[in-house]
């Protein structure tokens, strides 16, 4: 994993070690399964979200189609229930619009807390 926080162990919003979000399909800006970021990632893909129909449609309305497969990028397209690292500001925008998807807290990077209150993320925690 590329270090974003300056430490060798990256942390999640619960204070523990950052867990993998999804390996099938492989998610994350660096396509390593983890929601971490670095200077090459202006979108800050920090939130591990469980896709919902409402969020996927919202994302399309904002110009980011996550449902259409793109085999040339080894991207199968997402469906409700898929886990994916999403941009923290897109998640916040969806929250403000009332369509925020559930969050996998152990796989959501602590840097997301710079943009979204911890209580808001905790309230949207996905059930195990």
Tell me what you see in this structure.
It is a single chain. This protein is α+β, with helices and mostly antiparallel strands and 128 residues long. The protein is 19% helix and 9% strand. It contains three helices and two strands, in the order βαβαα. Strands 1-2 form a two-stranded antiparallel sheet. 37% of the residues are buried.
The H-and-E topology, N to C, reads as EHEHH
**Uncertain runs with pLDDT below 50, 5 residues or more?**
1-7
> What strand order characterises the main sheet?
1-2
Structural class: alpha+beta
- SS element count, helices: 3
Q: How far is it from the N-terminal to the C-terminal residue, by CA?
A: 24 Å
Helix content: 10-25%
Extended strand count: 2
- Portion in strands: 5-15%
User: How much is the average pLDDT?
Assistant: 92
What does the radius of gyration come to?
13 Å
Overall 3D geometry?
Answer: globular
Biggest sheet architecture: 2 strands, antiparallel
């Amino acid at each position: 994993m590329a270090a974003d926080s300056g430490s060798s162990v990256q942390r999640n919003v619960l204070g523990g070690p950052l867990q993998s979000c999804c390996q099938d399909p492989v998610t994350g800006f660096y396509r390593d399964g983890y929601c971490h970021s670095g200077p090459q990632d202006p979108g800050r893909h920090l939130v591990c979200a469980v896709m919902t129909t409402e969020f996927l449609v919202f994302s399309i309305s904002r110009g980011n189609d996550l449902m259409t497969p793109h085999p040339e990028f080894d991207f199968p397209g997402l469906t409700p229930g898929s886990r994916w690292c999403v941009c923290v500001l897109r998640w916040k925008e969806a929250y403000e619009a009332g369509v925020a998807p559930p969050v996998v807290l152990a796989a959501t990077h602590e840097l997301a807390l710079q943009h979204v209150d911890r209580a808001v993320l905790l309230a949207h925690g996905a059930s195990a």
